[in-house]
Amino acid sequence: MSKIISGPRNGFILAAATEAQKDIVMGFMKSINGRSKAHVITYFSEFEAIAKMAEGYLDHAKVSKKDRIGCTADYADAGPDSKSYDYAMTVNDVYLRRYAEGWRLMGARKIDVRYGFNGGINVRIPARYIEALKVEAIEKATAHLSPQPTRKPKPESDGIETILGVAA
Fold first, then answer.
1. 3-state secondary structure of 109
2. Beta bridge partners of 113
3. Is the pLDDT of residue 99 over 70?
4. Helices H, strands E: what count in the chain?
5. Is residue 161 helix, strand or coil?
6. What residues have CB less than 8 Å from 36, skipping those under 6 apart?
7. pTM value surpassing 0.90
């Protein structure tokens, strides 16, 4: 795996970026991608789609606007679909961070992946929101269920008292 190449200290602005800012971001990605053209990020709209996807996960987790600042997301394309594809496929692995005005590209790298690499997005949020999602999922899954009463266990005996009918 190659090392992540960081952008400027505060990242590249993705939300409401001007044409000049978009060109700077794509120049940064071109320096990372080199001659690679397939399966790597070559259009700024791909970053907008990744940021929208990450924002959707924050909405689903009901993360407050204040707590979204500092959340991070990693994104990489999936590997080849076919097991018979014997070669590694070069994709981008990008690292985003949420600021008050939106997502910013913090760094990226080129990685080689093979069949079985799932890729996708991984959004990191504060732990308390994960716990709230777990509680909500359990409540939803058990909404129409209740525990069955358990039977009281019979007292254990060695069997001789039962045969004789005499308690020891």
1. strand
2. 89
3. yes
4. 5, 6
5. helix
6. 90, 110
7. no
